[in-house]
Amino acid sequence: EIKMNWRLLYTPPSNGAWNMAVDESILEHIHRGESQPTLRLFAWNPPCLSLGHAQSFSDVDMDRVKEHGWEVVRRVTGGRAILHTDELTYSVTGSTDVPVLAGGVLESYSRLAQALLFAIRELGLTVEIKKDGSRYTLRKEQERSGLPFDTLRTSLDRQTALSINPICFEVPSTYEITVDGKKLIGSAQARKKEGVLQHGSLPLTGDLTRICDALVFKDEVSRKNAAERLLTRAATVESVLGMETAWETAAQAFVKGFEAQLGIYFQRGEMSRSESERAEELVKEKYANPAWTERI
């Protein structure tokens, strides 16, 4: 069996704009043949609300976000809002001719899900992969359909987006990892001409309902109801295990899962100077720029 060489990147806890810029910079470098396929494991400081590519900025309650000292960023992947705090975040970047990422969205998504499943079991959780279809799945597949970003916002996506809660962890969709029916990892993938970017978050600890403080609700009763519903539908590693799992422990489990399930051989690496410089440009041009964040 041929082992595939990938780069393993640990980046320090950073703000949302930089975290998103790094993934895009790596993807551009991979496209030019200057970087290897990469698994990056990271965290966020300060906590940051990330919006899906086609999500309306009007979902965000900026006054509350600022009160908490949080930030807001817009992802290039689809899906709904996630509050990134107390979590392990992963990103996978590679070209479409890398075997793990080849084929359609669902094929690659399903392969990566096997690695995630292994990782979570390694942490001691009894988890499974969600495989059934629903109207939520339809929406997700629409966003993951591999179409160029600008064509993703079809009428189907818009209509469905309007009819559901803006919170990502509300509902598991196809190939997402669940524990006792509750969503544990939220992932999203984008297939661009430069290649594939998939990222996702594993909440390790803390109160999942904090995200309800970052979003607009018509009244406080609705906010409270959303928070209660979220707790019945999503989990953290700590809420399942009854004890804290360190970020480093979770990171090691992810590496092991990718190696064991996908035949990847990792080499610890650093970002190249060119990747870092391009990431800084993307922060200014795009991810820290209201023209991108507030464009919808």
* Coarse structural class: alpha/beta
Mean pLDDT: 85
* Beta-strand residue percentage: 15-25%
- Overall geometry comes to globular
Strand line-up across the major sheet: 10-11-6-2-1-12
Rg to the nearest angstrom?
Answer: 18 Å
Distance separating the two termini: 47 Å
Number of helices: 10
Number of strands: 12
Provide the low-confidence segments as ranges. 133-164
Largest sheet: 6 strands, mixed
Which H/E pattern describes the elements? EHEEHEEEHEHHEEEEHHHEHH
| Fraction of residues in H or I helices | 25-40%
Structure, explained:
The chain has helices spanning 16-31, 62-68, 105-122, 135-143, 155-163, 220-233, 237-241, 247-262, 273-287, 290-293; strands at 4-10, 38-42, 48-51, 71-74, 82-84, 87-94, 128-129, 177-179, 182-183, 186-192, 195-203, 264-269. It is an alpha/beta fold and 296 residues long. The strands form 3 sheets. The chain has a 6-stranded mixed β-sheet, with helices on both faces. The protein has a 3-stranded mixed β-sheet with strand order 4-3-5, with helices on one face. Helix 1 packs across helix 9, helix 3 (105-122) crosses helix 8 (247-262) and helix 4 (135-143) crosses helix 5 (155-163). 48% of the residues are buried.
